[in-house]
Structures are given as C-alpha cells and as structure tokens.
Amino acid sequence: MNVTGNDAQTQVRQATTTMDNKLTRKSGEAKESLGKEDFLKLLMAQATHQDPLNPMDSQGMMNQLTAMGSLEQMINMNKQLTQLNQVQTDISQSAAYSFLDKDVTVKGGRVSVSHGVTPGLQFQIPRDADSVKVQIMDKSGAPVRTIDLAAMGPGRHVVSWDARDNEGDAVPDGLYDYNVAATSPDKETLPVELYMRGKVSGIRFDNGRNYLKVNGEDVDTRSLVEISNQSQRMYSQRQPMPLRESLQPLPPQLERKR
What we know:
Layout: H1 5-23, H2 36-49, H3 58-96, E1 103-107, E2 110-113, E3 121-125, E4 129-137, E5 143-152, E6 155-159, E7 174-183, E8 189-190, E9 193-206, E10 209-214, E11 217-220, E12 224-228, H4 230-235, H5 252-257
Antiparallel strand pairs: 1-9, 1-12, 2-7, 3-6, 3-9, 4-5, 4-7, 7-8, 9-10, 10-11
C-alpha cells in the first residue's frame, strides 16, 4: 500500500474529527456507548493509513490500546456495581418488613396524643443542667403547654404529659411538637437530643430508601434509635375471660328439645 505521510495524517485527522463531532453532539442525540467503540475506530483508522515501517506515533497507539482496555474494565466494573446496588436494595427492602408493628424510638421532637394519652416526652442532655424547660406546641406552632423541670442530671429522660394545656383543658388528639431548653449551672446553653416514640404501621420505599410510618408520618430508617416489642409483650400473654354461665351454649340434647 502506497500512502504518503500527508494523506495518512489527513485521514487520521478526519477520523479524529468524526469522533469529536460525536462527543460534542447535543445530549439528546448522544449515544450511550460512546467511548470504547470510538477509540477502536480511531485506532483502526490510524493503523490502516500509516506506514508500518515509519509509524506516525507508536507510543500514542500503545497509549490508546491501554486506555481502551482500562475503559472496558471500568464499564464492566460499573455494571457489576449496578447489580450489587440492586441486590443490596432488595435485601434492605426485605429486612424492612421486620419493623412492622414494632415500637420504635426515632430522632425528632414530636409526641402523639391518642384518647388523652401520650407515650411521654423523651430527650437527652449531655451533662448536668441547672434549668430544663419543655415547651409543647400544636401544628400551627402556637404554644400549648410549658413544663418547668428545674435541675436534671445527664442522660436520657422521659417526662410524662397529661395531654392538657396551660389552662388545664384536655387537648385534641393528634401530633404535637416540643422543644427542650437546658442550661448548665454556669448559664451555658446545652445541646438537647429529642426523640419520638410510636408504633410502625407501614413501610414506604422511595429512591432506594426505606421510610417507616410512625404516628402517621414517614420516618427515615436512618433516624432509628431504638426498637422493641413492648406492645406485644404487654398484650400477647393476656387470656380472654371465661364466658358467664348464662352465655354458655346449651348441650345438643337440650337444643333439640327447645
């Protein structure tokens, strides 16, 4: 094959220009498989049109071969990672069903009132506090009740609330937010971690994340602090009361005589 150096360079430049045009097309027209095939086309064009005894850039060809091999490995690795992520998502969703009907504690200052009963307000302070005050608010943010707890030690605390406002009136059932303000003996504001307790009534999957339905709200599983089956322990051992004699069914013989 009799090809001059200028012709070879021209054809290689044309092949390079063709690949650049593909890479710079609008995103709506771009192919998903750009990369490995274009490297191969460019390599074949350069190998076909150059003089074997006087290659234009042998080092460049070797670099392209190496880059093409690395690109193929990266594509294969990306496919394997995608499959692994899908497997992990399936395992996570399967495990999420074990949360159903469990009593959980999650991060967040919210408490539910049901039939005038609350599970208590939970919070944690890092060290001794000289003053601790709890403020409970309704959905609109209006204050409902303020509880002064005075001094408290470090750790997690559970404060009972009788579901009544500052005037002593019972509040409607629903969800209420609360904040805890704590100050140390030297009047320094202490960070307070707030918690919400409730039962998991449902599970929702969204973009690979699992959300638990607690007190009517979606809660990310990453905010879970504690899981228990307190309700099951309380009610699973209870036995039904025996029927009164007047409610017992009559023997078959007497049923026929009636």
